[in-house]
Amino acid sequence: MTHPTHGIRIEGLRKRYGEGDTAVDALKDVNMQVAPGEVVGLIGPSGSGKSTLLKCLGAVIEPTAGRMILGEQTIYDNGWTLPDLRALRRDRIGFVFQAPYLIPFLNVTDNVALLPMLAGQKNAVARARARELLAALDVAHRAEAQPSELSGGEQQRVAIARALANQPPVILADEPTAPLDSERALAVMRILNQMAAQYRTAIIVVTHDEKIIPTFRRIYHIRDGKTHEEAGEGRAIDLAPAHA
Ligand SMILES: Nc1ncnc2c1ncn2[C@@H]1O[C@H](COP(=O)(O)OP(=O)(O)OP(=O)(O)O)[C@@H](O)[C@H]1O
Q1: What is the 37 CA–ligand 1 centroid distance (Å)?
Q2: The pTM is what?
Q3: Are 229 and 200 in contact (CB under 8 A)?
Q4: What are 35-81's pLDDT values in tens digits?
Q5: Which of 8, 44, 61, 129 has a 20 to 30 A CA-CA distance from 229?
Q6: Is 22 in the pocket of ligand 1 (CB under 6 A)?
């Protein structure tokens, strides 16, 4: 089957934890499509299945049924279709979390270059790629600093650079703006939108953050393990300051 849009496609995804009387159907029927270059919001109350969905998409846990397509590749079709899930996570999916989780004893450039090096890139190529991304995210001047010397917003931008380092077709962001004030939260959303457009990345942002919800053009609501799509406001965010 061909997938003209690529990006992310999820069809009829289900996840059951446990068995028998104690089984929990965390995902009952999840359907989503995210185009390359698009940033969508995923919103839902506590316990609705958001983390379960991200963990399935990130190949951290195995779904029970359905299909998941990342980029050009079907990765799950009622079972994993790939032998090496570690390589999938490392090379094809970027993760951004609420906390930046930078490696404290590596400088900023090496934090970003590490994943391409692990994927087999030569050191010089990986570091050049890291410097290009740090420049795109406006933190090139901190390239030789240690993570502890950066502000929270700078650390989050380095974490975004790291998520982009292997040019994954997909980025999964879990509450990436929760600890940030309004201006910085909007700046992070602007960066994610710019990066999505520049690198044709499909990005899913799980969030409760009222500050950023108006920025999405499309939102998936998840409730009781089922997704519902709705149009967002898609409010322009180019008035936000450049520095997160
Ligand atoms: N490992 C597990 N074993 C059994 N049930 C689980 C497990 N992980 C999650 N669940 C259940 O699956 C359902 C969905 O949980 P999930 O963590 O995906 O929700 P969430 O939307 O991310 O919630 P929150 O916003 O509170 O983090 C909940 O009923 C939860 O109790």
Answers
A1: 29
A2: 0.87
A3: no
A4: 999 999 999 998 999 999 999 999 999 999 999 999 888 999 999 99
A5: 61
A6: no
Kindly report the protein residue whose alpha carbon is nearest to atom 1 of ligand 1: 17
**Which of 22, 48, 174, 209 has most ligand 1 atoms within 8 Å of CB, for mutation?**
48
Interface pTM (ipTM) of the complex? 0.97
Residue with tokens 């420049």: 135
What is the enclosing helix (H) or strand (E) of 229?
A: strand 226-231
Domains of the chain (ranges; CATH) run 8-231 (3.40.50.300)
Sorted by sequence, the CB contacts under 8 Å of residue 123 that are 6+ apart come out as 113, 117
Is 202 in contact with 7 (CB distance < 8 Å)?
yes
CA-only gyration radius of the chain, Å: 18
Which residue, by CA, sits nearest to atom 29 of ligand 1? 47
Distance CA 169, CA 6 (A): 9
Structure tokens at 192: 């994610």
